[in-house]
Amino acid sequence: MLSIPRFYDPKKVGEIYPIPYQDRFTQAIEWANNFGIGPSASDAINVELLVIDAQNSFCLKPPYGELYVGGRSGEGAIEDNDRLCRFIYGNLDKITGITASLDTHFALQIFYPTFWINDAGEHPTANTTISKSDVDKGVWKVDPAMVALIRPRIYDKKTNYYTILENYTKHYVNELTLGGRYELYLWPFHTMLGSVGHALVSAVGEAMFFHGVARKHQTDFMIKGGSALTENYSVLGPEVLMAQDGKTSVGQRNTAFFKKLVEADMMIIAGQAKSHCVRFTIHDLLNQILANDPKLAKKVRLLEDCTSSVVIPGVVDFTQQGDDAFEEFRRAGMHVVKSTDPIEDWPDSPFKK
Q: What's this model's pTM, rounded to 2 decimal places?
């Protein structure tokens, strides 16, 4: 591996700080010249790194980290990002391109308390699970004001949009059950578009910028999670695609990422959270692989030491779900690896001599 630049300070991984972009630009050019690192376009082996949701909301402790992924240790995402930054700097000459997904939310969405009320007109609290039974029995129901999310500006006054939305929620929780997904969970507000929480962790964003300049390769960004009517853990698509009529789309599949995998010699995946967005991204990716060519699974490397599961002490612990998912992916042919091991030593590495 390459050495780590002197400016990198692991103590600042859990902080927000201004990135001195002009300085990093100059240093990255010098770094590439000193180590003889060419532009990514000249790479004989195409290595793509996907970093899932390395955002302040997930990766910093409160108050900035509204949904901090601490894992069981309490230091999960911070330690993960330290290893991730070291991995990027240490393998700058081998990583062809970096793609960062950004979880992106708004105030009124189906997985937030704003969307639901009870008979008393009260909203639920964050970290409430809403089951199919809760919706069927009306324990929690759609706030009538949410009709504005589906009603067009010019609308037919004879149409009962509330009933349509109410029926959709029943369809939604049923689809989650049939699809083997998590029950509907109401999260604390996080990664709100335009907020501090939405931004990349400073240290990770700095490493990506440094890579982009040194390798003369634009960092790619994928936005997910903006639909009001479905959760969107996976980078590849939402939890539910269609409304109850089978025609109306509530979210879109992301086909570009799968195309990137097919074109790459190696796809490396890291980020947050192992139990949710990382898990379901890989799950959807694996389904596409199995439907196209199961041998593609060997291209995928999962950085097990650069991801943690959601643990809210005293409320919920998703560690086992994350670990079980990674074991499933390993059995399917994907390689679970450590960021601290040389890429050349990874199983089936295209860099092996």
A: 0.95
